[in-house]
User: What shape does this take?
Amino acid sequence: MDNILYEIWLNTIKGVGPCLVRNLLEAFACAQAIYQCQLIELMQVPNIGIRKAELIFYNKKLDTAKELAEYCMQHDILIISCLHPLYPPILHQYPKSPTLLYVRGNLQPLAYMESAAIVGARRCSEYGKEATTTLAHNLSRQNIAIISGMAKGIDSYAHTAAIKAAGYTVAVVGTGPEKCYPSEHQELMNAIIETGAVISQFPPLSEVPKQNFIKRNRLIAMLSNQIFIMEATRSSGSLYTAKCGFEYRKQVFALPGNIYDPLSEGSNNLIAQGAQIYLPILKAQEFISCTISSDPLVGKVIKLLTKAPLSIEDISSQLKLEYDQLQEILLTIELEDQIKCVGGLWGVPRV
Assistant: This one.
């Protein structure tokens, strides 16, 4: 508990950002040591300067930190610093990533799962909704964590589809972790906490300025291996997530839409700027789970079927497999929802 107090203290000093916090922790190993050090010791930290050193040295009040720590304990909110084993490993790549996270739920799966951000318009179309729910469902079944912002529209459909698929989903919010925004998503928030996690870089009971949501969108990009913009107007906040994705060299996909539809203007522009077009049939192979079987024949079957649907006779002929052996393989893969048979032809479902 003591060290948590000092971590909160350090991260709530106005004017002390994540880059400086990391430099300080590298120099002193823990927040308590920073609190107890002398001004001359602070001055030796790279790029700190006299003003920042004095700001830290003369700011020794722990009242706010104690109140926050107590509140978090009473409301089952975990406080995860960048030194904590539960801190998402992917965030260590970014010096400007938040050094303190407030978490409700289970953060541990993010340490070993691939993750995909699915974000977009709040007032989405049926087309956007269907594409989002299908994508989130299939990625969840392939053990890929779904990251989104719990906003109306695309975000909420992505979270809900992940939960229904018994997958793992993380809501990154622009408020404190105790606040449900929008308020009508309380039931969704509870469901996310039960099987996934709600993450905030903002302390409980803090104010919610507009720039919080810009920072939230940046954190979504940091946490994700791929970013999908499913529908976006030209002023959509999800475009900033995509911009950060480009900056962080993530895979950025955009769902193409009607060129005359304002709901697709932002996502279509992303494609013009270099985002990959999200065409489910072309991207199915990319997200195929490698966990379904260690049998190399399974991989060969799936690889073949991503090219085009085939009859069982054609598969048998091309892979030179016995009919009975192939039937058993196809059944195994079908039970994992990786392939399906329609009209006598076997193929990989659209993601």
Observations:
- Residues 118 and 152 are 13 Å apart (CA to CA).
- The first strand starts at residue 78 and ends at 81.
- The first helix runs from residue 2 to 11.
- Residues 287-294 have pLDDT under 50 and may be disordered.
